[in-house]
Design brief:
Helix Hairpins, alpha+beta, 75% helix, 516 residues, Beta-Lactamase, 2 domains, rod-shaped
């Protein structure tokens, strides 16, 4: 930041603010509290993982920070007045207390807790830092001890008394010696005790520059006063860190309570949904059991149907054999009837010959009768024979005609029988073909039914297994529902405990605020 970006305006913040931050060993910020962000004007994402000198003001001398790092790297705490820069260029003063944080004996981070200093201290620190930056002043030297100052004042008073006109003589000298003895012994005792306190003070903090900045003096009392301020700052630092942790804990507890309440609401919803799922699984279990039973029954029926199909196949094969035999018998009958028809034709030809002979005989008898009539009495006997022959020829012709009619009728009947036989033969052939097709269809149906039967058995087994699995799921769902109910109760108990812890956190915060 250039000098033009610096605004010479101080930011005054409330005296109860505790500006807290932590850094790693390379002074990279790892944590800040809300007071830090409020006073500096930075947001959290602008500070985290940034060097802590982002808030360093150019008025701060480098010697102060050198002393800071030399101290805290030795594992000791450091206290000092620091002028920091805001984001907008303004500045604010802090009474900084920096502490190394150790884990397992090793420094892992640095913690800085800053409070609002008195105006008198900031004025003295500003003047001192300006002088150091200008090269006009060094660290102040340690002044005379308080004991020396008291003794010098007393001795000067005695000398003044001795210089009076009435203070001469032996008694004056004796009184002087007695006064010295009476005064020096308690003074010596006081010095011994004071030296012990000073040694303890030096162990707490030994920095002449800070003595002058904080007290305006560099004697033993200023050393003790600075140590007391150091102890107070350390206490405030601990209190500030506890307060910051308590606020984070309180915020975390509030978020936890909100999350816990949301979890409870979600668990109630999940419990209701799970109850519906359990009911549905129970219904599904019943349905799967019914499916398994129906599948078993269907498999049994399919098995019976397969057996019936096999019986039908056997009956159809027998029917095919009988039909083939019938067809053979019909063929033989057709051949026999055809032969009979041929014999009828032969008989018809013989009848025709008989008819022709009867006609010729009738003509011959007629000629004989004519010749007998010509012969007169001599041919009368011959006429009788001729007449008988004519009658016989006439009956033969009639019989032949009747036989011819019968033969014709028989021929027609045999022809019709042959035609029917041929039609029956064709029908039986078709029946045989249809039987073969039906047999093939039954074979295909039997194979399909066998596959269906096998699948039905597998489905039945699978349905039974599924029923067992569904029953197991139902049992697990019941256990899960009991677990969710227990978890819901645990969340309720956790919410109660969170409220109790939250109350303890509030009381802890109130207790911490008493140290401010």
């Amino acid at each position: 930041m250039t000098p033009k970006d610096i605004i010479d305006e101080e930011v005054i913040y409330p005296s109860d603010y505790m500006i807290l931050s932590t850094t790693d060993l390379d002074s990279i910020i790892t944590h800040v509290n809300d007071d830090f962000m409020t006073v500096s004007g930075y947001k959290e994402d602008e500070l985290i993982n940034k060097p802590h000198n982002i808030v360093r003001h150019p008025d701060m001398p480098k010697a102060a920070f050198s002393d800071l790092w030399d101290t805290i790297k030795q594992g000791k705490s450091w206290m000092g007045l620091v002028k920091n820069r805001c984001k907008n260029g303004q500045y604010y003063w802090v009474n900084a207390y920096v502490t190394p944080i150790k884990r397992n004996g090793t420094i892992c981070e640095y913690q800085s807790v800053r409070t609002q200093p008195e105006a008198e201290l900031t004025e003295r620190a500003q003047a001192c830092y300006d002088a150091i930056n200008a090269g006009k002043a060094a660290k102040p030297k340690f002044g005379a001890s308080i004991i020396t100052k008291l003794f010098s004042a007393w001795l000067l008073s005695v000398v003044l008394l001795m210089s009076l006109p009435y203070s001469s003589g032996f008694f004056t000298v004796v009184a002087f010696i007695v006064a010295i003895i009476c005064f020096c012994r308690p003074l010596y005792t006081l010095k011994q005790r004071f030296s012990k306190i000073l040694i303890l003070s030096e162990k707490i903090h030994d920095n002449p520059l800070n003595q002058y900045v904080y007290t305006g003096y560099t004697d033993e009392l200023s050393h003790i006063e600075l140590s007391l301020r150091m102890q107070k700052a350390e206490t405030l630092a601990v209190v500030g860190r506890i307060k910051d942790s308590g606020e984070e804990l309180q915020q975390g507890l509030e978020e936890h309570q909100q999350q816990n309440q949301a979890n409870q609401n979600q668990l109630v919803t999940q419990s209701q949904n799970l109850e519906q799922v359990v009911t549905a699984i129970g219904q599904m279990s019943s349905s799967v059991t019914d499916i398994a039973k129906n599948t078993t029954n269907s498999t049994t029926e399919i098995h019976h149907l397969v057996e019936q199909i096999e019986s039908t196949k056997v009956a159809l094969a027998n029917s095919q054999i009988a039909t083939t035999e019938i067809n053979n018998v019909l063929e033989e009958s057709r051949i026999a009837i055809s032969s009979l028809n041929q014999q009828c034709q032969n008989v018809n030809q013989v009848v025709e010959v008989i008819e022709s002979i009867a006609k010729q005989t009738n003509l011959l008898s007629l000629n004989a009768a004519i010749e007998a009539a010509r012969a007169g009495e001599a041919g009368r006997g011959f006429a009788v024979v001729a007449d008988e022959v004519r009658n016989l020829a006439s009956r033969s012709a009639t019989s032949a005609h009747e036989i011819h009619a019968i033969i014709n009728s028989l021929s027609r009947t045999t022809a019709e029988a042959v035609a029917h036989m041929e039609q029956s033969h064709l029908l039986t052939d078709k029946s045989i073909d249809s039987s073969k097709m039906l047999e093939q269809s039954l074979i295909s149906v039997s194979e399909v039914m066998s596959i269906i039967e096998s699948n039905g058995e597998q489905i039945s087994v699978a349905a039974e297994e599924q029923a067992a699995v569904v029953n197991q799921i139902y049992s697990n769902a019941m256990i899960l529902q009991d677990g969710i109910n227990q978890f819901e109760q645990n969340c309720h108990n956790a919410a109660i405990h969170s409220q109790e812890i939250s109350g303890q956190g509030i009381r802890q915060t109130e207790l911490v605020n008493q140290f401010n």
